[in-house]
Design brief:
The complex is a heterodimer of chains A (about 240) and B (about 300). In chain A, about 35% of the residues lie in helices and about 25% in strands. Chain A has about 240 residues and is α/β, with parallel strands linked by helices. Classes of the chains: A alpha/beta (about 240), B mainly alpha (about 300). Chains A and B meet through helix 2 and helix 3 of A and helix 6 and helix 7 of B.
Chain lengths: ~240, ~300
């Protein structure tokens, strides 16, 4: 197997003296969609932020494309084309949609801006109608689209998505999952996503990890995780929803 | 009527100076959520830099054109004040950024005291004065016993303020640096996630704030012809009042607040008592804050840096 694009080894992160991650190992290979599932407070979002250096890992190492990024400042990690659509979307509420997208393109070469803008607006046509509107006035679904679009503006090599379906109507969530799948198929975009919606996430992903209390307890292909009884019991509403191939 | 027009002219001039200082307060507050008490000190130091630069270039280098001299001292003062404010942020605020909320505030009070005393020791306690740069004024109205005039100094202050505000507005709303500043003001964590160097953006904010204060300081010196080490305090506190009145964090608010404070001060001096002009200024502030606690333009969706 080739060297993974992102490799997380034994990472421990603390909030004050409280451990949030207790030695996490994760690999993401180029062109893969990898899902991380787990309950509230398991440390999923902390892992996403730790990859970006805020909070910083106290132990362990994070390697991206062969480079150790564990101690790199957040903005330099962003410059390596690791883009994140973080927990809570974090749209710049008092900036227009266009300005939000311009913020996303900071680390991309400026000559690509027009083409990249066209690309994300084709992907999310709703944003085109709202270009001059302030980010804070968008609906939740539109903000989620904007957050992903902003991340895509940097032409990421690795896209980190934290709960892309949170609080969205099922139809909108499906649109977003479809968009992620298309980007992965057509452009080979590497995606690492955190989801509470385990069924959809594991169906979308090539591989998945299950996190419990700051530790990875299970890993495997999306389909194999869906078939595991303990995953069904814990994350798939008592196994009511069945995996469909 | 004549008195009113004359005081309007004087008030707008004074208000321009307050407005330029107020922008510095409001910008730093927007990005760090901290009132930078050292800003009035930077304003005062910039006036002294301008004073010394003027003496230097007129006596040693023999620059005789006043317009030329004014431009040179303004640029020198802007550059040196920017370096000073950059250093202050680096030394006194940045190490405290992860500390408790009041720490940088206390540090800024300390810096303010340091700057005042440093200038007192190095420049002396007495007022320092410069000769008037222009001797000309334009007479607008003359009814026999009262002349309404606008001096060349006042016109200079207006023109410089308008040009500077135009450039500054363009910077904040249209450039990537301005976007980065607004992004840091709204969400520093997210700004760093998209690749903004937050520390550098904060440094640049202090540099811009100092440059604007330095223009105000140079023009203050030119307008009054005299400056003393204690001159930072009162104009500084009035500019801070202007920023609060306009809505702290709001850039247009700072300018509007500055003009209002300048006008209240001059109008009160003309029609009531000059001794009570500062009482009037702060009285209006108190009244506005009772009925409009967020200030005139201090709504949450206002453009801020």
């Amino acid at each position: 197997m080739t060297e993974p694009l992102l490799s997380v080894r034994g990472v421990e992160t603390y909030y004050g003296r409280i451990p949030a991650l207790k030695g996490v190992d994760i690999d993401v290979h180029e062109g893969e969609i990898v899902a991380l599932i787990g309950a509230n407070g398991a440390g999923k979002s902390t892992l996403m932020m730790t990859i970006c250096g805020n909070p910083r890992a106290r132990e362990g190492s994070i390697t991206f494309d062969g480079q150790n990024i564990t101690q790199l400042p957040t903005h330099e990690i962003a410059a390596l084309k690791i883009a994140q659509s973080p927990e809570g979307r974090r749209i710049f509420a008092r900036m227009t949609v266009l300005e939000n997208l311009q913020m996303g393109s900071i680390v991309a070469p400026p000559e690509h801006f027009a083409a990249d803008l066209e690309r994300v607006l084709t992907l999310f046509p709703r944003l085109r109608e709202r270009l001059e509107q302030r980010g804070g006035t968008l609906s939740g679904g539109e903000q989620q689209m904007l957050s992903i679009a902003r991340a895509l503006m940097s032409r990421p090599r690795l896209l980190l998505l934290d709960e892309p379906s949170l609080g969205l109507a099922p139809l909108v969530a499906k649109q977003i999952f479809d968009a992620i799948r298309d980007l992965n198929k057509s452009e080979g975009l590497t995606v690492f996503l955190v989801e509470q919606n385990a069924f959809h996430a594991l169906k979308l992903a090539h591989r998945g990890y299950v996190m419990v209390n700051g530790l990875i307890t299970l890993s495997g292909t999306g389909a194999s995780l869906l078939a595991r009884p303990e995953v069904k019991a814990a994350y798939l509403e008592g196994g009511r929803q069945q995996a469909t191939p | 009527m004549e008195v009113f027009v004359q005081q309007l002219i004087n008030g707008l001039t004074l208000g321009s100076i307050y407005g330029l200082i107020a922008i510095g307060y409001t910008m730093v507050f927007g990005i760090l959520n901290m009132v930078n008490f050292a800003h009035s000190g930077v304003f005062m130091v910039s006036a002294f830099i301008a004073l010394n630069a003027l003496l230097l270039i007129t006596t040693w280098f023999g620059v005789s054109s006043m317009v030329m001299a004014l431009m040179i001292i303004m640029v020198i003062s802007m550059v040196l004040s920017a370096v000073l404010n950059w250093t202050i942020e680096r030394v006194a605020y940045r190490p405290l950024r992860k500390s408790f909320r009041l720490a940088p505030l206390i540090s800024s009070i300390g810096m303010s005291i340091f700057l005042t005393n440093f200038v007192q020791v190095t420049q002396g306690q007495r007022n320092k004065s410069i000769p008037p740069l222009f001797h000309k004024q334009i007479i607008l109205m003359d009814n026999g016993n009262y002349t309404v005039a606008v001096s060349y100094e006042q016109i200079t202050i207006w023109v410089v303020t308008i040009l500077l505000l135009g450039a500054f507005w363009f910077l904040v709303t249209k450039t990537s640096l301005g976007r980065a500043q607004r992004a840091c003001e709204q969400d520093q964590k997210m700004a760093s996630l998209v690749g903004v160097n937050v520390d550098r953006t904060i440094s640049i904010t202090f540099v811009i704030a100092a440059a604007l204060a330095a223009v105000a300081g140079s023009m203050y010196l030119m307008y009054y012809g005299v400056v003393s080490f204690s001159d930072g305090f009162v104009p500084g506190i009035k500019a801070f009042t202007a920023a609060v009145l306009g809505g702290i964090g709001s850039l247009p608010g700072a300018v509007i607040g500055g003009l209002i404070i300048g006008l209240i001060e001059t109008m009160w001096s003309a029609y009531f008592s000059i001794d009570y002009k500062d009482v009037a200024v702060f009285g209006v502030l108190a009244i506005v804050l009772i009925f409009l606690p967020q200030g005139i333009l201090g709504r949450p969706d206002v453009e801020k840096v």
